Amino acid sequence: MTAVLLIEQVLNGLQYGVMLFLMAAGLTLVFGVMGLINLAHGSLYMVGAFACAAVAGWTGSFVLGLVAALAAAAAAGALVELVVIRRLYARDHLDQVLATFALILIFSEGTRWLFGSFPLFLSVPSALVGAVTLPGGIEYPLYRLVIILIGLGIAVGLFLLIGRTRLGMRIRAGEADREMIAALGVDIDKLYTMVFALGAALAGLAGALVGTIQSVQVGMGEPVLILAFVVIVIGGIGSIKGALVGALLVGMTDTLGKLLLPVGFGLFMEPSAASAVGSSLASMLIYMLMAGVLLLRPQGLFGDA
Amino acid sequence: MREGWVSVAVLAVLVAVPLGAWALDEPFVITLATKVAIFALAGVGLNFALGFGGLVSFGHAAFFGIGGYAAGILASHAANYEPLMEWPFAVEGSQQMLVIWPVAMVVSALAALVIGALSLRTSGVYFIMVTLAFAQMLFYFAISWPSYGGEDGLSFYVRNQFPGANTFDPIQYFAICLVLLLAALALSAVLLRSRFGLALEGARQNPERLLSVGIRPFGVRLTAFVISGALTGLAGALYADLNRFVSPSMLSWQTSGEIMIFVILGGVGRLWGPVAGAGLYILLEHQLGGISEYWQVFLGMLLLVVVIFARGGVIGVLSPRRAHD
Q1: How many CB pairs (< 8 A) connect A and B?
Q2: Which domain holds residue A226?
Q3: Tens of pLDDT along A127-173?
Q4: For residues B309 and A19, what is the distance between their CA atoms, to the nearest angstrom?
Q5: What is the CATH number of the domain that holds A54?
Q6: Is there a contact between B131 and A294 (Cβ–Cβ < 8 Å)?
Q7: How many domains does chain A have?
Q8: How far apart are the first and last CA of chain B?
């Protein structure tokens, strides 16, 4: 194994982490502000990917596809919030889990109905095809680098939005005391719909960006959803900073574990056994990370006790 | 209507349908009824933690799958005459259900002990996600561990044996599953009336008050979680035998969701809730599946309606409880 490979995988881990952050940010925001556990967040990711693939295939423009992904996911999020989700805020978590599980069934099968069971193809926009040479002579795909930059840019934007704007102030106030900000004249229903649509748009964007690397198909959202849950459990539910740290931790652990564990076991085991043990352990590694964090800090790294 | 009468009606349907199918020589319907009994057993297991203990586990597929793999691994070793392990002591595979069931239950109970001990350090939404994550961990382990079929799953060609019965005869296998389901229901009923059951009820309703009378909720909850895991594991072993096949999909998060649906559709915290729920689910799957390939859209909508409007599920609607219960 060379240093170049290692650095490449670190960048892949970063890219993975940044995508997980886009998912986890929406989840943690919705949980922090509305106290809602939303399993259908992965469906919004899928909606974004399908909207992007359909529009990009139809117009030939990836940028239009991205715009469509954001719009479709935000619209789907707002619609779902208005019709279903707002009836669930006052309910316990069990009802929320079940209702949003039902939404997954509707979204997944509905998408299969519209688009069929075959994966859609979404190609990397031509301007971003190819590799760039990084300092040190490392070749890395330009598109993945752009994803990392977009993701980090959105993370900065989100921190500014929450910390520096009036909307962000209201969101933070909503987390702290719902009745009080309603009494101060903020339209809390509208605020909730906006927060939910914002989270949905982030998920849709993640889906569209990843759609070019993986295939766009029904059921693509749920594995990412569960990883995003792991992220926010590690980071502390409700904390955007925790979501960022957790996402990067999970992205790195998963990517590097898959690279290093089989090699590590290879030092003292036969190659075939080492790769079997190494890869099975690597696939469980992030859950072990989560269990470890919970043992030390049950409320997550940045959660309130 | 009294809950007792609703339960009798549910049991009557569960017994009458396969007997009728047996008389009319419709083995497929008997198999469907067997599936209902097995899913109901898994639900009875989950209901113990979720309904009576208030522990919203979204990872019961872990125990269902562990039970299934216990059955599959024992049976495949026995079929190939390979010992399970030779060191430090020899363990042979087995095709006897009377051996497989206890093994499945003990292994799932041990898994529930570990998962529960870690997960119960958290509560609320963390608990939901942590149990889910542990189930996912086992799911990915099953996929990437090549010895027992990995992603393709593990088939065994002969259904395991039960002394004095021909387990290949659908109605006899149904009877076995039904008896186990009834035994699990009886066990639940007895436990709930015991001191332990009262403490569990207390831990759900008001942990502080339970603590103030000198009982730590953690131990009570962990015990409930372990019993719950063992029952669901037994259901997994039966399900593996029904299909003569286990695969990682038994461990998947969709399976956790389905087991939860059985409990909720029937009525959370009702003894017979999972039986009614599993029956309704299989009926819907069969009926809606005949109308449209995309039947899960309708299932999803129905579930939404149940969660939002018909709280308490089938049994809750038929025999509502007063608010202070």
Answers
A1: 122
A2: 3-296
A3: 888 888 888 778 889 999 999 999 999 999 999 998 899 999 988 88
A4: 36
A5: 1.10.3470
A6: no
A7: 1
A8: 16
User: Cα(A244)–Cα(A155) distance, rounded to whole angstroms?
Assistant: 8
- pLDDT tops 70 at residue B188: yes
Higher per-residue confidence, B308 vs B36: B36
Distance of CA B47 to the CA centre of its chain: 9
Q: Tell me the chain A residues in contact with residue B56 when contact means C-beta distances shorter than 8 Å.
A: 93-94, 97
- Inter-chain CB proximity B311 and A95 less than 8 Å: yes
Q: Mark yes or no for CB contact B297/A97 under 8 Å.
A: no
Q: Which of B35, B77, B115, B79 shows the shortest CA–CA distance to B282? A: B35
Please tell me the least confidently modeled range out of A24-28, A133-137, B95-99, B258-262.
Answer: A133-137
> Residues 219..248 of A with a Cβ closer than 8 Å to B: which?
222, 226, 229-230, 232-233, 237
- Cβ atoms of residues B65 and B142 within 8 Å: yes
**Cβ–Cβ gap B297/A110 under 8 Å:** yes
CA-wise closest residue to B41 among B273, B226, B255: B273
Can you tell me the mean pLDDT for B30-35? Answer: 95
User: Was domain B3-318 assigned CATH 1.10.3470?
Assistant: yes
What is the radius of gyration, based on Cα positions, of chain B?
A: 19
ipTM attached to this prediction? 0.85
Q: Residues of chain B with pLDDT > 70: what percent?
A: 98
A79 occurs within a structural domain: yes
Distance CA A155, CA A162 (A): 11
Structure tokens at B182: 């009834």
Q: Which of A98, A105, A283 lies closest to B296 in CB terms?
A: A105
Residue A181 lies in a domain: yes
Compare CB distances from B118 to A95, A282, A295 and report the shortest one's residue: A295
pLDDT in tens, B76-88: 888 888 887 776 7
* Torsion-angle region of A197 (φ positive above 0: left; ψ -120 to 50: alpha; else: beta): alpha
Q: How far is the alpha carbon of B31 from chain A, nearest alpha carbon, in Å?
A: 25
